[in-house]
Design brief:
The structure is a single chain. By secondary structure, this protein is mainly alpha-helical. The N terminus is likely disordered.
Length: 484
């Protein structure tokens, strides 16, 4: 549905947006592969004009070839115009029931409902797709997405069972590694950690020498940390430290070192914990270095004095790099966060990562503007932001993007008070996922929470945003005035 904005008196036709490759904003809630389609705004507008001209009296799309319906659906979907995309996918299913595009059309309908978090509606679509077309990739994806949907409906035990069925039914399926690993985490979320442990062993055996085997060991470490089984967690951390950190491994040596130090601290081995925290070098861009410095400061004594020296070095680095951390749109940001319990510096930290302060940025996921809102999320928060009749191109306007972000970040800050990592993760990966990760982490430690972030893109995003936030806090007060 087209949306248009109450600031009509200010409207001008914006220049062509610049496509950026920053993370796809706060709407990336699934792991489906991206489809290469024309995502330009004029492609969307042109498709809408053509559709409107050919639409019948019943409001249905003109009768086109299955391939053309699929092409138009892909353009709408890439721009998150979900209703319009579903209209074309449904036309394929209704008009060409034997066509080879039908499985992909069904998956498109299910996936778009999933992205809108309409999980009860998505579930039967995926179930029918998986049962009807297991011989093609879209059908196997539908079978897999039943589990992903159940998980988001807080039916973790059923999700674990479905992932297990995928492993049995499609032993060489496109998502087989993720299926094994998701069994482990789904069982944890179902409160059945003892049943998860054999799946760790099965995964390591099945994928020996591959990243999935290392990721299974990392899953075991996270499970042991959540259970406060410090001696076992330390042994697992030591074993994991000897594993290769190849591409596809979901942790890093610095994260592992931090978790090991945290386990030592909680196990009462303070001296060893201090030594381990100190091995993580600190710098302005080092997330785990910053966490280690904070823990050293909290531990007191000689550790606190060492932390002070680390903080002094980071402060000096921040001052040298101040030009990289500007405060554009200061007054607009402060108005947007007023009364929202949002740190204005967090908005800048996110803005820096999302768009690089380019108001014309557009991501591959159709997120637009400074704060990279997509049309569907903008519509959700527009009323509370006192915006009406919003259109896609209005999202390129800084005042609109910032106003929406103030409301959205206010909601997230209320949900995850005191944990900016969770706010950042929600902005990228969706708050429903983050609520599950917070629960899974158990401990109220930012590094432990970050280890539980289930999407690699979202974890990387959190680390970058929190490094930005640290710099902004070093340089500016809460009202965005330079510190002296």
């Amino acid at each position: 549905m087209t949306m248009a904005l109450s600031l009509a008196c200010l409207r001008i036709d914006p220049p062509s947006p610049v496509v950026v490759t920053t993370p796809a904003s706060h709407l990336t809630t699934d792991t489906a592969s991206a489809v290469s389609v024309d995502q330009r705004d004029d492609a969307l507008a042109g498709t809408r004009r053509t559709d409107q001209a050919g639409r019948g009296a019943d409001g249905q799309p003109a009768r086109l070839s299955a391939e053309e319906h699929q092409r138009r659906a892909a353009i709408y979907h890439a721009n998150r115009a979900f209703d319009e995309a579903r209209g074309h996918w449904q036309a394929i299913i209704t008009r060409y029931p034997q066509d080879s595009n039908v499985p992909a059309a069904m998956f498109g309908i299910g996936r778009s409902l999933f992205q809108e978090r309409r999980y009860p509606e998505a579930l039967p679509v995926f179930a029918k797709l998986g049962d009807t077309y297991p011989q093609v990739e879209a059908g196997r994806d539908g079978f897999y997405y039943v589990a992903a949907t159940l998980l988001r409906m807080e039916r973790a035990g059923e999700a674990a069972a479905r992932y297990g069925e995928y492993v049995t039914k499609f032993p060489d399926g496109e998502r087989i590694e993720n299926a094994y690993l998701n069994v482990i985490d789904s069982l944890r979320e179902a409160g059945r950690s003892e049943e998860a442990l054999p799946w760790v062993a099965r995964t390591r055996e099945r994928f020996a020498g591959k990243p999935a085997a290392v990721n299974a060991l990392f899953a075991r470490l996270r499970l042991e940390v959540a259970r406060s089984d410090w001696p076992t967690a330390l042994r697992t951390a030591d074993e994991l430290s000897r594993a290769p950190f190849a591409r596809g491994v979901q942790t890093t040596s610095q994260e592992l070192t931090y978790l090991r130090a945290y386990c030592l601290e909680r196990a009462g081995q303070k001296a060893e914990a201090v030594k381990t925290y100190q091995t993580i070098p600190d710098s302005l861009s080092s997330y785990y270095g910053g966490l280690a410095t904070a823990r050293l400061d909290a531990l007191g004594g000689e550790a606190k004095r060492g932390a002070a020296a680390r903080m002094t070095r980071v402060r000096a680095e921040a001052l040298r790099m101040k030009a990289d951390y500007p405060t554009p749109h200061r007054e607009t940001i402060l108005r947007a966060v007023a009364g929202q319990s949002v740190d204005a510096r967090l908005m800048l930290a996110i803005m820096r990562q999302e768009s690089g302060f380019n108001p014309l940025a557009k991501s591959p996921a159709a997120a637009r503007g400074l704060m990279q809102f997509t049309a569907d999320t903008a519509q959700k928060y527009a009323e509370r932001a006192k915006l009406s009749n919003l259109r896609e191109d209005d999202l390129y306007r800084p005042e609109v993007s910032i106003q929406l972000a103030g409301v959205y970040l206010g909601e997230l800050s209320g949900m995850f008070h005191g944990l900016p990592e969770a706010v950042a993760a929600s902005y990228n990966g969706g708050e429903d996922n983050v609520a599950r990760w917070v629960k899974r982490a158990v401990h109220a430690d930012p590094g432990v929470f970050t280890s539980e972030v289930g999407f690699t893109e979202s974890k990387d995003y959190v680390i970058k945003v929190l490094a930005n936030l640290r710099a902004y806090r070093q340089l500016y007060t809460e009202d965005l005035r330079p510190r002296r």
